[in-house]
Amino acid sequence: MxxxxxxxxxxxxxxxxxxxxxxxxxxxxGFAGMSGIALTKANLDLNFWIVLIPFFLSYGFGQAxxxxxxxxxxxxxxxxxxxxxxxxxxxxxxxxSGVGLVVCILILCWFNPYNLIFGILSFGxxxxxxxxxxxxxxxxxxxxxxxxxxxxxxxxLSFTKPVGLKFNEEVIRVALxxxxxxxxxxxxxxxxxxxxxxxxxxxxxxxxxGWNLTVWVSDLIYLLVxxxxxxxxxxxxxxxxxxxxxxxxxxxxQLKAHFQKVKTEEYAAFSIxxxxxxxxxxxxxxxxxxxxxxxxxxxxGAILFxxxxxxxxxxxxx
Length: 318
What we know:
Structural class: mainly alpha
CATH topology: Tetracycline Repressor, domain 2
CATH class: Mainly Alpha
CATH superfamily: UbiA prenyltransferase
Number of domains: 1
Shape: globular
Largest sheet: none
Helix content: over 70%
Order of helices and strands: HHHHHHHHHHHHHH
Oligomer: single chain
Number of strands: 0
Strand content: under 5%
CATH architecture: Orthogonal Bundle
Distance between the termini: 30 Å
């Protein structure tokens, strides 16, 4: 029996599209952007909340965009996704994602025209990531993480006078911390798709080097990030609690991955989820260091993240 295909003007399409956006991952881009904003003199006014909208939504549009180029592997690892099932059209998802990302970029350009540079680079990076992931195992994690590291730069620019691309040492430090902390999520995320990626001829790091080396490399990056945050001088007051929580999450994630008796895709979800939480806590540490007045936003964000994470349609996939 032929499956019904939802067109762009139906509620069924938008419900399906939301699955591809992965709402639980909105908090990655949202708090990455807020990390850059925290370094500025931005006030908690209307402009602050307007700028957060494209930061939170951009990850969802970007995720749906990249899904359009990975249907082959998703049909094996994520058959529940609407594109894998063929109930929405690839061209529609490409169109909505492209328009959504362009609108996000334009909003940020309204606040600072120089955001267009990073917006174009991010859009191009998302559109070509699947190709890089498929063919270059050594570039995949860094390529993906570079896109995320642009977000704090764009957040900083959004509340800085448009006098050029000038970043102080603090902004660069934040971008580097988020670059490496996000690369852990990318690497660990490859674990859930090893079989599917191998079948679809994707040469990811985990396909080429296997589960164990992926986890060991992630161990080193966790350590690098934790040392980097400590040496940056961000650990004081309440941040000691957040830093301790980050260490606990890193240990739980990696011990589970190292000592998992059956090292197959369905057992990677816990460690991957911990790596997302670790990234978000790194953002929290940075944000709270410079704008402790945002504590209520961080608490609300943490609650909403955990709620949306538990609502995902397939528990083994993130």
